[in-house]
Amino acid sequence: MFPFVYQSLPTRVVFGSGKLSELAQEIERLGARRALILTTPEQESLGTHVAELLGDRAAGVYPHAVMHVPLEVAQDARREAARLDADCCVAIGGGSTIGLGKAIAMDSGLPIVAVPTTYAGSEMTSIYGLTENRLKKTGRDIKVLPKTVIYDPQLTLTLPPLISACSGMNAMAHAVEALYAEDANPIVGLMAEEAIRSLGKALPVIVERPDDLAARSQALYGAWLAGICLGSVGMALHHKLCHTLGGTFNLPHAQAHAIVLPHAAHYNRQAAADALQRVARALGGSEAQEAGQLLYELNRKLGIPLALSELGMPVQGPAQAAQIACASPYYNPRPFERQPIEALLERAWKGLAPA
Ligand code: NAD
């Protein structure tokens, strides 16, 4: 057994269909009395429903969360929390809404109860992001880790099938990279394999039958485990590339993750052979099958766009992104090499298979 460090993060997790109904109890458990409910504009009616559920424990609804937490929105939300004398935040939505909760917590220390409705995994991490002058800065602070997370699969039934597929592959990426992380450890490895297995089984069912609650539960369970992976160990090439694509070309987060993942796995196929064999096994493949290829085939089966060009990345994008990523690389089992990374992005841009 190789030496390792394992640090668990102290979040209480309540999982199950219909568990949103226990939100008031969970807020009470934290000793809070006035919750500010955060949503995106698209999910405002869900926020109103939550406010009704909470009665006089709801301080108000703030329905202005948007992607990548612009500083002005964070500042406005912080003012609103102070004005309403809120003593906790309920962030109900995807990574954008939970990110706004984190920006408030960073400033005021207000505890967060997160109710995720996508598979992005932000609720299980102490990673925050804030965008100022089009530049997104990220960091880690235990203050922003949600105190409680309620996973209610019923809330994911409205997530459109294609977005569910992309968001699920975003979660898959956390688990894949956790297996070859610099600080990988056996416990996170178990969670990663289980996450890959659960998502690999559930996502094709969701695409065919979006209202299949059993598949929705299995995907959300996988997403939870993948979120723990993201929060526990460092990420590598794949996350660096997606961060670059999001920041430089404003590509949609989950879709970019889905497209790049097979290519990043292929790039690491020799340097992280054991880890990628575990990925292939968890996806139901044989020893001889390559993880990158299996992930590409899964994307195709899910009907996910396969080409970064389809997301609006310009033709000179691969060269530009390779240069930016290589200028400040993350740890990766195979060192960042400019030409092969550009070639990888070229294939992803065209939607070709990774091999
Ligand atoms: P999102 O939160 O931006 O949501 C996308 C859209 O889907 C929004 O309009 C939202 O209202 C809608 N939506 C969400 N759930 C829905 C549902 N169940 N039914 C119908 N519509 C629904 O997307 P995301 O992919 O969850 O999050 C992306 C953001 O999260 C990015 O900014 C990313 O950087 C961040 N993120 C952060 C971390 C972290 O650890 N800090 C982890 C993952 C993602």
Word description of this protein:
By secondary structure, the chain is an alpha/beta fold. The protein is built from 13 helices and 8 strands. It folds into 2 domains: 12-156, Rossmann fold (3-Layer(aba) Sandwich), CATH 3.40.50; 161-350, Dehydroquinate synthase-like, alpha domain, CATH 1.20.1090.10. It has helices spanning 23-29, 44-54, 71-83, 95-108, 161-179, 186-208, 213-232, 237-249, 253-267, 273-282, 291-302, 317-327, 338-350, and strands at 12-15, 35-38, 58-62, 88-93, 112-116, 127-132, 135-140, 148-151. A 6-stranded parallel sheet has the order 1-8-5-4-2-3, sandwiched between helices. Helix 8 (237-249) packs across helix 12 and helix 9 (253-267) packs antiparallel against helix 11 (291-302). The structure holds nicotinamide-adenine-dinucleotide. Nicotinamide-adenine-dinucleotide binds next to helix 4, strand 6 and helix 9. Residues 40, 42-43, 67-68, 93-97, 99, 117-118, 120-122, 125, 127, 129, 155-156, 158-159, 167, 230, 253-254 line the site of nicotinamide-adenine-dinucleotide.
Write the layout of secondary structure elements.
Layout lengths: L11 E4 L7 H7 L5 E4 L5 H11 L3 E5 L8 H13 L4 E6 L1 H14 L3 E5 L10 E6 L2 E6 L7 E4 L9 H19 L6 H23 L4 H20 L4 H13 L3 H15 L5 H10 L8 H12 L14 H11 L10 H13 L5
Parallel strand pairs: 1-8, 2-3, 2-4, 4-5, 5-8
Antiparallel strand pairs: 6-7
